[in-house]
Specification:
alpha/beta; seven-stranded mixed β-sheet; 7 helices
């Protein structure tokens, strides 16, 4: 299983020297194995994936798994070049009951006038919209995928992806301070080889000691993420969904603080590639 991080930023994409090492694109992670491709969320990072795929020969096929439908997780889809090719096959999972209908509606609405020059129907790919339901496993090629509910405004799904005896857990947009490690949440993170967790805020930001209090905004601190990674005995923790104002240096400092609770913590970086297993 190969993981490729195409967007690791939260809320809105950024650019500039302050974000050159961590990256500025919003959430998108590619997971591949044995010719099968999963795409977790379609933030602005999905555009670069599309540009790479259209350079490859032959028709493209991918399964897109959406954690939720807030704009930083869908805003890159209109720029996903393979979706305009009639030879492309896309299976798109929207979160929760009725997620198939909701996902198609959201993707369509963001491409309607006056927001975008062409409608969703301009995308000629064969698209199949499906529901992703918490606790109901999906089988895609060699992957076993289990969605699970995360505490976040309007709801969110995390995904545990297993293949070849390895496990990658993607849990962006989760307010861990409020949830704690409930048995229902911890079971899906247990023993992950790579645990990708929301860590948008510092404790001071979350509590309101630095700017407005962020309680109830649906995101976690790096210390929450580190404590949960230790609790579930993950092998590696990637701090994800970096605040748009976060500099590279600040992200590194947050990771250093997180390592006081979990030694194998590091900031997720755009362009990073990890290989799990042989």
């Amino acid at each position: 299983m190969e993981l490729r991080f195409l967007g690791v930023r939260g809320s809105v994409a950024v650019s500039g020297a302050h974000a050159a090492r961590i990256g500025g694109n919003t959430a998108c992670v590619e997971v591949t194995s044995a010719g099968h491709r999963l795409v977790l969320d379609a933030g602005t990072g999905v555009r670069a994936l599309g540009e790479r795929l259209i350079q490859e020969s032959g028709p493209q096929k991918a399964t897109l798994l959406f954690s939720h439908l807030h704009w930083d997780h869908v805003q890159g889809f209109p720029f996903f070049a393979p979706a305009y090719a009639p030879t492309t096959q896309l299976t798109l999972y929207g979160p929760g009951p009725g997620g198939d209908v909701a996902l198609e509606r959201v993707l369509s609405s963001q491409m309607q006038a006056p927001s975008f020059p062409v409608p969703l129907s301009a995308m000629r790919a064969r698209m199949r919209f499906c529901e992703a339901l918490s606790g109901v496993p999906l089988e895609v090629g060699p992957f076993r995928i289990t969605p699970f509910a995360l505490p976040h405004p309007q709801g969110c799904l995390g995904y545990r992806i297993e293949e070849g005896g390895r496990a990658f857990v993607y849990a962006t947009d989760v307010e861990l301070s409020r949830a704690g490690v409930t048995p229902a949440l911890g079971r899906w993170m247990e023993g992950a080889d790579v645990l990708c967790l929301d860590a948008q805020y510092t404790p001071d930001e979350y509590a309101g000691r630095s700017g407005p209090a962020r309680r109830g905004w649906g995101h976690s601190t790096m210390m929450d993420a580190a404590q949960i990674a230790a609790h579930v005995q993950a092998q590696r923790l990637l701090l994800f969904h970096h605040d748009p104002a976060r500099t590279d240096e600040q992200a590194e400092e947050m990771a250093e603080a997180a390592r006081t609770h979990f030694a194998a913590a590091e900031p997720a970086r755009e362009g990073k590639v990890l290989r799990l297993g042989a």
